[in-house]
Write a structure and sequence with these properties.
The protein is of the alpha/beta class. It has helices spanning about 50-60, 80-90, 130-140, 140-150, 165-175, 195-210, 220-225; strands spanning about 1-10, 20-25, 50, 65-70, 95-100, 110-115, 155-160, 185-190, 215.
Length: about 230
């Protein structure tokens, strides 16, 4: 498997925030989000080849049962199904962080952390038009989202930059035609530092109070800043 990095830290986002977790970050992505905070694992991805055995052995060295397979887009990674199965069969709780553009195809998964990309993700005019078109055509697959939420325990995590994004989230939830508990919907402020996140935090908290959604902070940013391996 082509892996960007592995590290042991605490989960900084979502319903498992604060839990010590081993992170396996695959290299490569099929999107080009404007605000991507890990380009080294996405469109600038190089990474190094790792065997599944070596990854499982590394996870087993740490005193936690929580593992996170993330990216980039981990569902693109050759061998991700085998890796996830090995970890789950070994007693690990496995979170898969995905942009939900690729069907699960039976992958072993304890928690599907689903991050559909809103219009705010589309790259700016400084990016080639062909790249913008590919991103826009791929970023939102409602049929794929339905497949994941029908099969797995899940959380729906959205990056929010403005009030318009919240309206878009609500419209998407209605379009999915599924009964989704509001506490499974996580609204996360965009930003790579506390000041940037604060710009939209009040608006997000207001929406959470109005609709019963969950405010999703980024604890790793507050503790460590925007650094790799944290």
């Amino acid at each position: 498997m082509r892996i960007s990095e592995t590290f042991y830290s605490i989960q900084g986002e979502g319903t498992l925030t604060g839990l010590p977790s081993v992170f396996i970050r695959t290299a490569g992505c099929n999107l080009r989000c404007r605000w991507c905070d890990s380009p080294y694992a996405s469109w600038r991805a190089r990474g190094s080849e790792r065997t599944i055995d070596s990854l499982v052995e590394e996870v087993n060295r740490y005193p936690t049962r929580f593992a996170v397979i993330t990216g980039g887009e981990p569902m693109l990674a050759e061998g991700v199904h085998d890796l996830a199965k090995r970890l789950v069969d070994g007693g690990r709780h496995v979170t898969i962080e995905t942009a939900v553009t690729i069907p699960p195809r039976g992958i072993a998964c304890s928690l599907a952390s689903l991050s559909p990309k809103l219009k705010n993700s589309t790259p700016g005019m400084d990016i080639p038009a062909a790249v913008r078109r590919r991103h826009e055509a791929c970023r939102l697959k409602t049929d794929v989202i339905r497949e994941w939420i029908d099969q797995y325990d899940y959380q729906l995590k959205f990056v929010v930059c403005s009030g318009a994004d919240i309206a878009e989230v609500i419209a998407l939830l209605q379009a999915l035609e599924r009964r989704i508990a509001p506490e499974k919907v996580l609204l996360m402020p965009e930003g790579i530092d506390a000041a940037a996140m604060a710009n939209v935090a009040d608006r997000i908290i207001g929406a959470c109070k109005e609709h019963g959604f969950r405010y999703c902070d980024r604890l790793h940013i507050r503790l460590y800043g925007h650094r790799r391996g944290r």
